[in-house]
Design a protein that fits this description.
The chain is built from 9 helices and 8 strands. The structure holds pyridoxal-5'-phosphate. The site of pyridoxal-5'-phosphate (PLP) has 14 residues, from β8 and α9.
């Protein structure tokens, strides 16, 4: 199927989830995760109306940026970020979704020329294999970023467990939403924290019902090569 057809289906499902949850569909942005596909396929996503591109490796981010940069398209770095790759990623990333440690914040602070929009990654499910701060660590961590002039915490991000258990997924997303509200309520200038980056191909409808403002969709939107 074409990317445009996939996007149409996804948008309909997002609309239905928003209706169910009493939300406005305009509150939800789709990030096309293009890590599995070439620049040509990624271009189809932009032609179909996508305004956000997500990549999880620095090389992929740069390749897609060079091929797709145009007014109104934002680039999101969604993968684990090694401190030594920060310098390479910063010129291309409008958003970093994987801020999960102080050493990484320090490197961003040192290398950035202007304020960087960051999501703090939270390991809500507590799985040992997942990156991210624990729920308990998140608020103190964000508080500790107050003195960092280059870091703006725009929201929280999580990766849900790989499961079909809808109630488990829902509880993970709901917990992240509660935590986001806690941070937002602090009123910290460096951490407006209005956004929630959660939901992928298999679980985005639940994430939207629970408050996602950015869903990160790869397979269901652009497919997977090979
Ligand atoms: C690959 C990836 C996605 C998209 O995964 P799909 O299941 O293909 O939609 C979303 N978020 C992150 C962090 C990823 O690495």
């Amino acid at each position: 199927m074409s990317v445009a057809e996939n996007l149409h289906i996804i948008q309909e499902k997002i609309n239905a989830s928003c209706l169910k949850a009493g939300r406005k569909a305009s509150e939800v942005e789709v990030i096309a995760v293009t890590k599995y596909v070439n620049s040509q396929r990624a271009k189809e996503a932009v032609s179909a109306g996508i305004r956000h591109i997500g990549e999880n490796r620095p090389e992929g981010l740069i390749e897609k940026y060079e091929a797709l940069k145009e007014d109104g398209v934002s680039f999101h770095f969604i993968g684990t970020l090694q401190s030594r790759k920060v310098k390479m990623v910063l010129p291309y990333a409008d958003y970093i979704h994987s801020l999960d440690r102080l050493s990484l914040a320090k490197e961003i602070e040192k290398r950035a020329e202007q304020s960087v929009k960051c999501f703090v990654q939270v390991n809500v499910s507590g799985e040992a294999t997942k990156h991210g701060l624990s729920m308990a660590e998140t608020v103190p961590f964000i508080e500790s970023l107050q003195t960092f002039s280059k870091i703006q915490v725009v929201g929280l991000m999580t990766m849900a467990p790989q499961t079909d258990d809808e109630s488990l997924l829902r509880s993970v997303f709901r917990k992240l939403k509660e935590l986001q509200c806690d941070v937002e309520a602090k009123g910290w200038a460096h951490a407006p924290c209005h956004e929630l980056s959660m939901g992928m191909s298999g679980d985005y409808t639940i994430a939207v019902e629970e408050g996602a403002t950015f869903v990160r969709i790869g397979t269901a939107l652009v497919g997977k090569e090979g």
